[in-house]
Amino acid sequence: MFGLHYRLERKAIGLVLGIMLVASIGGIVEIAPLFTIHQTVEDVPDMRVYTPLEVAGRNIYIREGCYACHSQMIRTLRDEVERYGPYSLAVESKYDHPMLWGSKRTGPDLARIGGKYSDEWHVAHLMDPRAVVPESVMPSYGWLARSDLRTDNLGRHLKALRTVGVPYTDEMIASASADAYGQTAPDTNFAAGVAKRYGEATNIRPFGATPNGGLTEMDALVAYLQILGRLTDAAHRPVGG
Amino acid sequence: MIAELTKNERNGALVILAVLTVVGLVMAVAGYADPFGIHGGLVAIAALAGIFAVISGYFAPEPTLARFGEYYDTPSKIGIGLAMAWAVFGLFVGDWVAWLLAYPNATFDAGWSSFGRLRPVHTTGVIFGFGGNALIATSFHVMQRTCRARLPDQLTPLFVLFGYNLFCILAVTGYLMGLTQSKEYAEPEWYVDLWLVVVWVTYLVLYLRLLARRREPHIYVANWYYLAFIVVVAMLHVVNNLAVPISFYEAKSYSLFSGVQDAMTEWWYGHNAVAFFLTSGFLGMMYYYLPKRAGRPIFSYRMSIVSFWGITFFYMWAGSHHLHYTALPQWVQTLGMTFSLMLLIPSWGSAGNALLTLNGAWGRVRDDATLRFMMVAAVFYGLTTFEGSFMAIRSVNSLSHYTDWTIGHVHAGALGWVAMITFGSIYALVPWLWKREGMYSPRAVEVHFWLALGGTLVYVLAMWNSGIIQGLMWRTYNDSGTLAYSFVDSVVAMRPYYIARAIGGLMFLLGAIVGSWNIWMTVRMPAPVPADAGGDQPAIALQAGE
Amino acid sequence: MDIAHGTLVWLAKSFGLFYLIGLSLIVVIYACWPSNRQKFDRAATAILEEEDRPWQ
């Protein structure tokens, strides 16, 4: 009796192990090489990290599911390059935890939207897309302008990002909340700190010019949109250059 | 339900629920400034409701040993009810977002009701809510029958079922509050994922315990498919959801992976979720309920085994076809494409096996809408897998990717295959479980069948058209060598198809409502008087519990 | 952690192929093994039997 029972159990466990083995090998073979991919990803020294405000904006982009309608991955096809700009390089999403390449283009690709329109255009468009593009089916995001941006925990955000591999310094983490404000307040000491930590090329201006003067989620989202495709110039350089 | 638990199990349930209440309260207090706290409150409330239910039945007499002479079907019954409830809910939200693409203002001026938050509610509602509950409910039924043994205890299956539904509720309410990892089909945040791991491991252990008790030495092939579903989904879930939370009292986390790696991991997960959640598990359903309902053994048992290993093996390599022409290394793309093509062999093996099983019983297929559900499911399975392999070819993919064609493909699979095989199985199962002659209204099954088939066809044809038009418009050049259409031109061209799609979805939703009503009425029908009352007694002396 | 990328890619490509062929062979042989035939036939028909209650 014990013998039979033992054999039965062994068979079931064997089946489970078989499934695991057969199933995992495909994944391992296909994915493992990607963990050494830093050896193949282009090395670009000018690649900068997202500022705290841009991180917050990116999180709003995630929260609202913009990725459900917009891709951020220009494929290596002629028409895509002509429509959206130079095709996306692996290095450009190096600091994207998670990536937002997307899978569906109900709206256009946004990988290179940064700088294409003014801040005012984005705000008006997000408030009511059909006021700007009458045929649009994009949702209105009016409440973003009514919601204050939460900045008190941005330091923890940067810290978690550092844990997963984004090179934020202690100083960046410590001043994350102040930097979020600083990026929207040019000609202040706060703004100078942002420029010092994240580089002179950082966009520093009151994105969206929120009426009540406080930081809103709209400001953060626009700050993020305006940096898309501009963390490095690598894609614009001639191949091999 | 509680009366079926032994004293020990009732105590066990109370302990689990008490722990859960405490966990929920701690979450609520620690995370008071974050949606995390709201979820804590939700967990605590759910657990308290459970405690209340257990206590109210606590002093009912214990079940007798006679239970070992019966199968334990309560979890399957509850699971079917939950599956239908999630189906109606998930399909409703799906149809709402479909209308939003034609009438973008048909919603409230608030975050929770915007397209981007509702869409994952739809996908999670139908895949995990409807599909998952149906899989759990049928797997309990199938594995007991094919093992000729009763589930090892009464508490664990209920824990799996209710724990899983708690996962679904946390996921869906999270999206409405804006909590998402943005990984498609793996949106729930870190703590919800951890809870699913607990539930899922319990599910696997339960399955193994039952297999170990089986009286039938050979493990019937349906169980292999269910087992692969459980095992591989666990692997996928754990790897893809690796993330670092910003703190242990806030919901937000950051994926361990970034960029290319993240994309590859996500689509390795995403594609295999299709394989092992939406295919393997439902093939398990098909390999049991289709032969049962048709009254004929499966056409080729050998083919089902070969298909099984083929699917387990090939699918794993195919994920990268989601990333053609992207920044992913070319060799990975090619590998993905090759294996996607080879996948056709095991897939058609299964679809053909199902249809050949019905060969010779076409008269029954004509008269029996339940069997017809299953037949149509097999046909759609064959079509969808063919289409999938086709779309994985790089040049085809360059046109189809990012367009509605993908959506059409997914729904050919989701509506035509997954939902149809599930409805067919449920219609077969409900009268067996509740010991009724048949469904309350065979006519309503017929109505449901035609609504489901019509809805699927309208949906899929609309999306094929819109997808191909969209893809062509994006790449059309005019004579002077510039792009002929602006993006907005393509948005305008989609409108009639989006309306058609929403109508197709509405038909499918109505079908599900008719089905739910029919199931409800069947359950409420008076039970027939048993022919010989003696048959209720177990025939042979019982061995005491294990 | 510094296994060269090239090595891994090479391994994936070469080993993967043999693995694929080998596994397919094993599965087909198992499914067609003559002595398994009876077992499979029985399994296929067994589920159609009466199944009111567990076997004791």
Structure, described:
The complex is a heterotrimer of chains A (241), B (546) and C (56). Chain A is mainly alpha-helical and 241 residues long. Helices cover 46% and strands 0% of the residues of chain A. Chain A is built from 11 helices and no strands. Chain B has 2 domains: 1-63; 64-545, Cytochrome c oxidase-like, subunit I domain (Cytochrome C Oxidase, Chain A, Up-down Bundle), CATH 1.20.210.10. In chain B, 72% of the residues lie in helices and 1% in strands. Chain B has 17 helices and 2 strands. Chain B has helices at residues 7-30, 35-56, 74-100, 115-147, 155-177, 190-212, 221-240, 259-294, 301-318, 330-342, 344-358, 362-367, 369-391, 394-400, 404-434, 442-475, 487-524; strands at residues 243-245, 253-255. A two-stranded antiparallel ribbon of chain B has the order 1-2. Chain C is mainly α and 56 residues long. Chain C has helices at 5-32, 36-46.
Concise structural overview:
The complex is a heterotrimer of chains A (241), B (546) and C (56). Chain A is mostly helical and 241 residues long. Chain A has helices at 2-31, 52-63, 78-84, 119-127, 129-132, 142-146, 154-163, 170-174, 176-182, 189-198, 217-227.
